[in-house]
Amino acid sequence: MFYFLLPPLLAVIGIVALPTRAVLAQDSAVAGNSARTAGVRRITLEQVKHTVDPAVNPAARLAQLSLDAAKQHRLGVEADYFPKFGAAFANLHFTSFLGEVLEVRRPLLGVTSQVPVPILSQDQTIAALTFTQPLTPLLVVHQAVRIARADERIAAAKAVVASTANVRKAELEEIYFQLLIAQCRLKLGVSAKESFSAIAKVKELTTSLNKAMGWPEDTQLELVPPDPLIENLSLEEVANKSAAANPEVIEAEQTVVKARAAAKIAKLAYVPTIAAVSGYLFQNAIPAMPNNFGYGGVVASYNLFDFGKREHAIKEARDQLGMAEIALQMTKAKVSAQLQKSYMELERARQLSNVAQRMGSSASLLMKVSANPESSEVQAAHAGLEVEMLEADLAHRQAFANLKAPLGE
Q1: What is the pairing mode between strands 41-43 and 221-223?
Q2: How far apart are CA 362 and CA 368, in angstroms?
Q3: What is the largest CA-CA distance in the chain?
Q4: Does the pTM of the predicted model rise above 0.85?
């Protein structure tokens, strides 16, 4: 897109007037001293990016709360590994005598006596301490923990995606470059209508950056041109990272883990429920029993017949596991194709940016031998080529960001 500038540049004494980024930085520093005296604020791209505060991002906050909830759920499920201690207390009074009144004849005395025989006490106090340690249910707990941990990993992957701090930085980076480009276009010697449009664009973008920095909207800004993006990311590195870091792949993998654990839980329905129990009891409800005693042992229960419910549950879990495994393969294939496409776009943007930077370096050398480097034609050519360099660098940065986003970076 910047090749159309070559003929006009060669026509203007065969010279293009664009210095390198180092020369531009020096020029900006010199201009900045006088600009600051006039109330112009000089900023860099890094200063703009550092204004992003992830703590005030509601999407990131929501994702963090979801992650915390998943973590607490997993810790709650893990608590089922440990024994359960319980306590109970009751103090009751019954309005009637709970027992039998027996008549006893006394032949020697020739009388009949009534003797009350309580079966349960009319005033009862019961206090109990219990201890229960599940045994076979621990197998189910183990699989439930795996499901909860998988949900936590999915929530963590989604939290990375939902955190728009990097997205906001990319937006501010684009505004920064667009403002630089708009400022350069004002130097191109365009028509009055185009000049008016460029001035309005500069004002709009300046207002956006001032809001991001927390400055007054009418603050004039002097932007320091950033160094071109330099990266050497290879397709092999992208392929190696895709399966491990992509949020979609992580969710699909953890869904398989959950489905496999659910299938095992369905099979464990055929295992009896066995638990070890013990405790201590104080009671006066049954007079014939001691007031204080302890106990311990094992309890077991088993559902003998459930009309095929367990069998159907196992088949359902098996089908869901198969679905999850197929979905994982499809997700990996889709992500791989997406990353290859994004890498091709990155490579194309990288090449265009490199060509633009080399042209700029060559132009700075030609400017030194120009007969009239301050002429309006040379200045316009300088601004036009600088616009092309900035656009190429911005496209390179955007392609790089689009590639790294699916990698969870």
Answers
A1: parallel
A2: 10
A3: 151
A4: no
Query: Do residues 244 and 332 lie in contact, with contact meaning Cβ atoms separated by under 8 Å?
Result: no
Provide DSSP, 238-304.
HHHHHHHH-HHHHHHHHHHHHHHHHHHHHHGGGS-EEEEEEEEEEE-S-TTS-SEEEEEEEEEE---
Half-sphere exposure of 168 (CA within 13 A, CB side): 20
Interior CA angle at 113 toward 111 and 115, to 5°?
170
Strands 123-134 and 273-283: antiparallel
Asked whether the beta carbons of 14 and 355 are under 8 A apart, the reply is no
Tens-level pLDDT at each residue, the chain (409 residues): 444 344 433 333 333 333 344 433 444 443 344 334 346 888 888 888 887 655 556 777 788 889 999 999 999 999 999 999 999 999 999 988 888 877 777 777 777 777 778 888 889 999 999 999 999 999 999 999 999 999 999 998 888 776 655 567 778 888 889 888 888 887 775 566 777 787 888 889 988 888 878 888 888 888 888 888 888 877 777 776 666 678 888 999 999 999 999 999 999 999 999 999 999 999 998 888 899 999 999 999 999 999 999 999 999 999 999 999 999 999 988 888 888 888 888 888 888 888 887 776 666 656 655 556 566 666 666 677 778 888 888 888 888 887 776 666 6
Angle (CA) 302-306-307 rounded to 5° is 155
